[in-house]
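Title: [Solved] alpha-1,2-Mannosidase 3D structure

Original question kept below for reference.
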Amino acid sequence: MNYFSYLRRLHLKWNTALTSCRSRFIVIVLLTTVLIMALRWSMAPLPEHTVHELDVPAMRQKVKEMMLHAWSNYHRYAWGSNELCPITRRGCRGSVFGNHSFGATIIEALDTLHIMGLKKEYQQGRDWIEANFALDNVSAALPVFELTSRLLGSMLSLYSLTGDILYRNKALQIADKIMPAFDTPTGIPKSIINLKSGHAQSSNEISKVGAQHLEFTYLSDITGNPVYRERVQRIRKMLGNMTKPNGLYPNRMNIRTGKWIGSDSSINRFHDSLLKSWLQSGNLDTESEQLYTDAILGIVQNMLTVSPQGDTYISDYANGSLNHRMDQAACFSGALFAFGAAYDQMKHWEKYADIGTSVTETCHRSYEQTPTKLAPEVLVFPADATEAAAPHQRNRYMLSADVLESYLVMWRLTRDKRYRVFGWKLVQAIEKHCRMPHGYTGIRNVYEMPPEPVDSQPSMFLAKTLKCLFLLFSEDDVISLYEWVLNSGGHPLPIQGENEFYRELV
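Solution (posted by the thread starter after getting help):
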């Protein structure tokens, strides 16, 4: 972890350096970085099957071709629908956004198209949003978390990337439709809202109610309206003041009383939002930093597990004990630990860096251990740990990307080529088992050969999976992790004070 150590020292020195010294400091940093990277590559050769030089430009071009295949078939067969059903060649109904069509794939894919430089396709999407996107007549109960992270997050990302006022206006429309969900005795939002009536339904998942800080804080900054920040800061303060059993945030809470329901805990996107809120603020949001540090410590002390086979994983905590299960969605946590170790001033950061590496390796093995080389939605590690991750009833793969966020962060922090190799293996598996003549599908069981396809191309595939793959095979200045944070939907939001595209209204 020498490169992690160097990054950490660099971060501390930069924060304490005088402005007049920073130019010389930059030169020294660049020269030293080159030396460290050269030593790392020469001392840690890749396994035999990856010793040949990677054709990274060809990999990047392949991902663009995948994006074009997914987009062009959506454009042809499902334009304006939320998602494409590639096998039946029609618009899909019944996704997380319900049966009402408002172009979720268009909205979610647009920042990916922009980043890839696919101008014609980007313009197609922008024109549709300008002419057609509206939520005024959507009489449907929709999840607040997905509306925030995926629709609002996408519009905010597009505004920061382009400066196009259209996206800021659309972001405001989405946010104002979400706001009635916050009208509860505690300020903790309900998780389901009818966009037309404003009627909201109760829920109590911490991963849903506590992970909206990035979007609403940034929206306040670009509009000058503090109400959005105030809503999420109230949540953050309340959660920070609550007693955490064993230092853990339970998964469920009563949004009327503000009390926990049970003690079951999982690592989820709420923890991710704590770290990224601190990063997004330019390291000024020390409250989020402290909450992140405390939450990660609780997870390490109570949920971190290593099997006899060497698999490091974050077990769910249920009914007072570990159940030795980890959702594939939790595979983002490799990045959570590694990024925190590199940038935060926490104790035991070297251990956390090792945890980030080890969890990422475990998640990668979950792909390697199936005949399709695609991972199930849930990993099960038997309590006696006598075998590797076992099959489970939730064995489908739906083109998800959480492990790719860890590959991306680990690659950019360590320069270890194996993470690009891991990403390329996933590309090959997706192409082999999920590519159809008219788009991409999930598969019903990753343990069956040949796998049975699921007739759905999730919008998240274009929003996050293909974006993370493209960034993995791109130079570091393409959505630099020093200037951007990825929200839970995979949409990049700028870091205040570090990114000229923050576009704060002053």
